[in-house]
Design brief:
By secondary structure, this protein is of the alpha+beta class. The chain has a single domain, classed as Aldehyde Dehydrogenase, Chain A, domain 2 (3-Layer(aba) Sandwich), CATH 3.40.309. The strands form two sheets. A two-stranded antiparallel ribbon has the order 1-4. A two-stranded parallel ribbon has the order 2-3. Helix 2 links the parallel strand 2 and strand 3. This is Aldehyde dehydrogenase domain-containing protein. Keywords: Oxidoreductase. GO terms for molecular function: succinate-semialdehyde dehydrogenase (NAD+) activity.
C-alpha cells in the first residue's frame, strides 16, 4: 500500500525495467488518469498484466526493445519509403 496516488505513480516509475503495470481502482477515470502518468509499455486497469498476439507488446526504459506482436510490432522490422516514378515527359 502507498499513502497516495502520487506516491504510487512515483513508485511505478522508479524502475529501469518497466514492461507493464496494473492499476486497481473503483474509479475507472482515476485509473485512466494514473495509467497515463505511468511510464510503462502497457498499463492494465483492474486486470493483471497480460497480452495477446493482436496487441502491441513492449516496454520502456531498459525494457524497451521496440514493439512486438500485432501490426505495430511488424512495423519495427520495416523501413517504409515513398517512391514516385514518372516518365520524363510526364507533366507530373
Amino acid at each position: 500500500m502507498v499513502k497516495d496516488e502520487q506516491a504510487a505513480i512515483y513508485l511505478a516509475n522508479d524502475s529501469d525495467f518497466v514492461l507493464g503495470s496494473s492499476v486497481f481502482t473503483q474509479d475507472i477515470e482515476r485509473g485512466k488518469r494514473i495509467a497515463n502518468q505511468i511510464d510503462t509499455g502497457m498499463v492494465f486497469i483492474n486486470h493483471p498484466t497480460w497480452t495477446q498476439a493482436v496487441l502491441p507488446f513492449g516496454g520502456t526504459n531498459r525494457s524497451d526493445f521496440g514493439r512486438e506482436l500485432s501490426a505495430l510490432g511488424v512495423q519495427e522490422f520495416v523501413n517504409k519509403k515513398h517512391i514516385r516514378a514518372s516518365k520524363l515527359n510526364d507533366p507530373f
